[in-house]
Amino acid sequence: MRAWRLSASGIALEEVANPIAKAGWAIVRPALSGIGASDVRTVQAGGFVGTLGHEFVGTIESIEGEAHGFKPGQRVTAWATAACETCDLCKGGLSEHCRSLAVLGQRALDGCLAELVTIPTSRLLAVPDSLDDEQAIFAQPLGAAIHAARLVALEAQAYVTVLGDSVLGLLSAQVMARRNATVRMLTEQPQMLELCAKWGLRHRETNLSGLRGDQDVVVECSGTADASAFGMVRPRGSVIQACPPAGAIDLGDAWSSEVQLLCARGCAMAEALGELASGSIQTAGMIGRTLGFEHAADGLALAAKPGSLKIAISHD
Ligand SMILES: [Zn+2]
């Protein structure tokens, strides 16, 4: 089969052997993959040798051993992570922080930018029939937005600013707006400002917004290393770091204002599929480009541009 592989010499479309499912794993044929910021980070960081890609919707080809209720032919997506289930953290209920956590297409696990991918059946999720593939590929970033939002208790009409410039920002703003908060999204990307206007979300260009220190919560989804989130939040407010920062952040203002810094990396994926199926979260207009499988390297280059919308890869 063909697979988009990362190695020390870069990205290449290679012919590789079909994967073999271990007991408790399924073979899935992806139909549509999504490329996002974490795929770009994986390529830029180097170090991972394997098949790229962690967001997909596909069909189960076969299952080996424990099926967890799944069957061949079923349309599925999957969590990107797989834990060992035997280390102290897994046994202590922190399997998302497993000491040997594997991440699809990023760490110790071949990803979905291939004709076939193997996934533990315990990590599969059925995709509701009402969702098309173009909606379902947002399950992972939406799951991350839902997980991040849960880290704070919001008083009624709390003031929330989402530092956007990303698909995660657009989803976080929608999730926060559904929690009875007064939400505004700050982004420099015209297409993201347009989407917010269409959805009735308050929005503003980032550089037109002052650092007034009056927000109860700031959700940092832009992945920069600047400390503006701490300048926007009120004393003893909360900053949710919903994606990894691009570098070291100066925490001086955070310390003097006693700001809570909450780091969010988890993914409430089952809830995300439910929200998508209920139609409460908008995804139309959030796919910037859909490219054919053989153009996935171009997709990674597009996703690396600042403020990129979701790049989808069709496996047809
Ligand atoms: Zn573990």
Protein model, in words:
By secondary structure, this protein is of the alpha/beta class. The protein has two domains: 2-138 and 283-314, Quinone Oxidoreductase, Chain A, domain 1; 143-263, Rossmann fold (3-Layer(aba) Sandwich). The protein is built from ten helices and 19 strands. Strands 3, 5, 6, 10, 11, 18 and 19 form a seven-stranded mixed beta sheet that branches. Strand 13 (182-187), helix 6 and strand 14 (202-205) form a beta-alpha-beta unit. Helix 4 (139-149) packs across helix 5. It is globular. The chain starts with a strand and ends with a strand. It binds zinc ion. Residues 83-84, 86-87, 89-90, 98-100 line the site of zinc ion (ZN).
- On the 0 to 100 scale, the average pLDDT is 95
CATH level-two architecture of the largest domain:
Alpha-Beta Complex
Biggest beta sheet attributes? 7 strands, mixed
Bound ions, cofactors and other small molecules, one mention each: zinc ion
Structural class determined from secondary elements: alpha/beta
* C-alpha-based Rg, rounded: 19 Å
Task: Report the CATH C-level class of the largest domain.
Answer: Alpha Beta
Identify low-pLDDT runs: none
- What would the CATH topology of the largest domain be? Quinone Oxidoreductase, Chain A, domain 1
Give the fraction of residues assigned to helices.
Answer: 10-25%
- The backbone outline, from C-alpha atoms, is globular
How many domains? Answer: 2
How large is the share of residues in beta strands? 25-35%
- How many DSSP-defined strands? 19
How far is it from the N-terminal to the C-terminal residue, by CA? 14 Å
Would you list the SSEs in sequence order as H and E? EEEHEEEEHEEEEHHEHEHEEHEHEHEHE
